Amino acid sequence: MRCKLCGRPAYIKLHYPRMYLCEEHFVEYFERKVQRTIEKYKLLRKGEKILVAVSGGKDSAVTAYVLNKLGYDMECLHINLGIGEYSEKSEAYARKQCAIIGAPLHIVRVKELLGYGIGEVKTRRPPCSYCGLTKRYIMNKFAYDNGFDAIATGHNLDDEASFLLNNILHWNTEYLAKGGPLLPGEGKFVKKVKPLYELTEREVVAYALAVGLEYIVEECPHARGATTLDMKAMLNEMEEKRPGTKMNFVKGYLRKRHLFELREKVELKECKVCGMPAQGEVCSFCRFWGLEKPLDFRVRRG
Amino acid sequence: MRCKLCGRPAYIKLHYPRMYLCEEHFVEYFERKVQRTIEKYKLLRKGEKILVAVSGGKDSAVTAYVLNKLGYDMECLHINLGIGEYSEKSEAYARKQCAIIGAPLHIVRVKELLGYGIGEVKTRRPPCSYCGLTKRYIMNKFAYDNGFDAIATGHNLDDEASFLLNNILHWNTEYLAKGGPLLPGEGKFVKKVKPLYELTEREVVAYALAVGLEYIVEECPHARGATTLDMKAMLNEMEEKRPGTKMNFVKGYLRKRHLFELREKVELKECKVCGMPAQGEVCSFCRFWGLEKPLDFRVRRG
Ligand SMILES: [Zn+2]
Ligand SMILES: [Zn+2]
Ligand SMILES: [Zn+2]
Ligand SMILES: [Zn+2]
Q1: Does A98 belong to an annotated binding site?
Q2: Which residues form the tRNA(Ile)-lysidine/2-thiocytidine synthase N-terminal domain (chains A, B) (predicted)?
């Protein structure tokens, strides 16, 4: 088949909207879609300082690559989770990606910083649970300490749709208040955005390949990913029968999200240890890691 | 395999809870579960006059059969939709079922009553849409006119789970306020209950077979059932991987249903034609069928 726009041999067949595109026009299409997503949901303004959390995987690498290409002022942060070889490999990919992009890369290593890697802490909490807590905290504190206006993550359409479906099947309606492409900043919480919100996993993979970004393919050894994979498979099955299912599902959610928003806001205090927002006296990060003084991520600028 | 309770050869393997039962113990299990559903959700009290809507299909036949066996005061209503041979067959099955049950059967024929069968009306509305409207109205008016305290329908767990999943995937949150085993009566709306709410389609089929109820298997020729079937297939796939998925999905919904309830109640007027509840001057049933005087379903009692 041939590109709809120029007649050259097709690089990819898009399902929704259905069309064939050559490599060049696909890359253009993809980048324009990111730009439009940013504008449509008012995610970022030119001139804002953006921190992209690069994990070594495809989604965050593509996010960083495209934001840079679109002319946003961005730097990258890689959090090395201290999960043995998996983390070493992830860091190596993140370094390679940022070198290609030409973006400054900051690296925070959990094990150096806190004494233990993810999975090494003696706790009854499953690793994925405190890993999420730890990543979220470090990302936010790093961005806050260094004056970033926004944190961009690599979540794509498939991630969002499967997140929503899973939380709906389990009626975790608390989580359903927290979806969407934009989590506005508030107090010491830095704004979080998802520029790949309307792009499918398949498109992200095709883009990475087209622009020559390599990335880690292995799953984290702690991942309990079975549920997410099930959900993604189910959604893809439905998508095949009815193209547009995922997009319509996610857009419908955005129209109805208000139903899940808590009517009363939880008042947050300041953590006695680190000064960041906390529900109790000490924030869940400082409590979990048993910190007695705050982490300081301020980077000396040369 | 053998019955968990008596060691005789098993008639069925239940998936959730997982156990083998002989025919006799399965029938007992099934009926006890209906009774417990009725009590748990406060659907019916002994002494209430119940109208069971029997379509000729398995679910409503089993509902009527079990309610009668459990000693409830019940009569049946069959609505002949006037869809050619399909409706003739359905009516014949309903008659046979009620004869077995030994329950009084009332029959309302749409075509005799209103001049056209479902599918014969010149309208842009799809048949399933005005069929639903028509059945709901006749069921309710018949029950109201004849002093019934409740209408029992045959909805089973699979129906409810697929209804919920479909409306969630499309974010039809208005409909999500209307699920559940009990729709309380209000004004001229007669209470509606679903005694098979916690029983799966598979269990209903096995019960019908065990007690010798025959039923129509064909789908209505107008059915756009593809979506419902897709949803049921998907849910069954998930159920196989994680037994209990459907039940937990439905129970989770019941805990969160309040999120979907409208904060402001729509004030209903009385239909100028029939006196039943209406959103405008004339109710949607009288408007659709162009009625000028009310239908009267009062039955002469001998
Ligand atoms: Zn082209
Ligand atoms: Zn803290
Ligand atoms: Zn037995
Ligand atoms: Zn009316």
Answers
A1: no
A2: 49-219
Q: Which of A167, A171, A230, A260 to mutate to test the interface with B (most CBs of B within 10 A)?
A: A171
pLDDT of amino acid B225: 64
User: A238 to chain B: which residues are within 8 Å by CB?
Assistant: 169, 230, 234
What is the pLDDT confidence band of residue B238, given thresholds at 50, 70 and 90?
confident
The pLDDT of residue B302: 61
Tens digits of residue pLDDT in B29-85: 999 999 999 999 999 999 999 999 999 999 999 999 999 999 999 999 999 999 999
Structure confidence by residue, pLDDT tens digits, A111-124: 999 999 999 999 99
Identify the structural domains of chain B with CATH numbers, from first to last.
34-289 (3.40.50.620)
Position B228 confidence tier, pLDDT thresholds 50, 70, 90? confident
Scanning every residue of chain A, which has its alpha carbon at the shortest distance from the alpha carbon of B237?
A234
> Closest Cα of chain B to A208: distance in Å?
30
Using CB atoms, pick whichever of B170, B230, B237 lies closest to residue A252: B170
ipTM, two decimals, is 0.80
Q: Give the gap in angstroms from C-alpha A86 to the nearest C-alpha of chain B.
A: 29
B234/A230 CB distance under 8 A: no
Confidence of residue A226 (pLDDT cuts 50, 70, 90): low
A170 closest CB neighbour out of B234, B241, B252: B252
